[in-house]
Amino acid sequence: MLEQCRHDFCRSCLVEPCESAIKNQDCFPIHCAQKDCRASLLLTDLRSLFSGEKLEELFRASLAAFVAGSGGVYRFFPSPDCPSVYRVIESGAPFVCDACYAETCTLCHLEYHPFLSCEKYWEFKDDPDSSLKEWCTGKENVKKCPVCGFTIEKMDGCNHIECRCGKHVCLVCLEFFGSADDCGGHLRSVHLAII
């Protein structure tokens, strides 16, 4: 007998719609099967039908159906295997999960990123060197090694630098050499100065 409406059913007639709801995640809330009765099955009804593991499976399916039907108002926490749900808010305030203690941005749904807009953080996620590239733009004293692509900044001194890859680079034309002497010779003969 169901707790809310007091209608009587055999066990299999109550288990079948619950099993279907677990599979399809779209039959929630689960209602009494009596014609014209819209009473929902209560927790006490479900506990009398299922063991702990199956009941947990039903709860997870019900939560998934709730999140899916929320129209984007609620989302699952993005950490793998984390069961938490949070409310999406326009401010992008952090949500700290009580289960895994991680933080997420409630606007873009990535790791929380204080001091960066969601757009800047997306850009950084797509290209971790984007902030370095932005910083380098328009700076005459900043170049990329023609061999390994490492960013080189000339602070002072001559136009020769030894990159971390071991090549000697002319900072005027970005030609590279195997030794400091070869690079120095190039600077004197081609550019007529080492500074």
The amount of beta strand, in percent, is 5-15%
Q: How would you sum up the major sheet?
A: 3 strands, antiparallel
Structurally, the number of domains stands at 3
Task: Give average pLDDT, whole number.
Answer: 86
Main sheet: strand order: 7-8-9
- Strand pairing plus helix content: what structural class? alpha+beta
Number of E-type strands: 9
Share of helix, binned: 25-40%
Distance between the termini: 93 Å
Sequence stretches where pLDDT stays below 50 over 5 or more residues: none
Radius of gyration: 32 Å
Pfam families: IBR, IBR_1
Domain RING-type: 1-190
Pathway: Protein modification; protein ubiquitination
GO molecular function: transferase activity; zinc ion binding
Compose a concise summary of this entry:
Helices cover 33% and strands 13% of the residues.
Description:
The protein is α+β, with helices and mostly antiparallel strands. The chain folds into three domains: 11-68, no CATH class; 74-126; 139-190, no CATH class. It is 33% helix and 13% strand. It has six helices and nine strands. It has helices spanning 11-24, 43-49, 52-68, 118-126, 130-136, 180-190; strands at 74-76, 85-87, 94-96, 103-105, 142-144, 151-153, 160-162, 168-170, 176-177. It has a three-stranded antiparallel β-sheet with strand order 7-8-9, covered by helices on one side. A two-stranded antiparallel ribbon has the order 1-2. Strands 3-4 form a two-stranded antiparallel sheet. α1 packs across α3 (52-68). The protein is rod-shaped, with a radius of gyration of 32 Å. Pathway: Protein modification; protein ubiquitination.
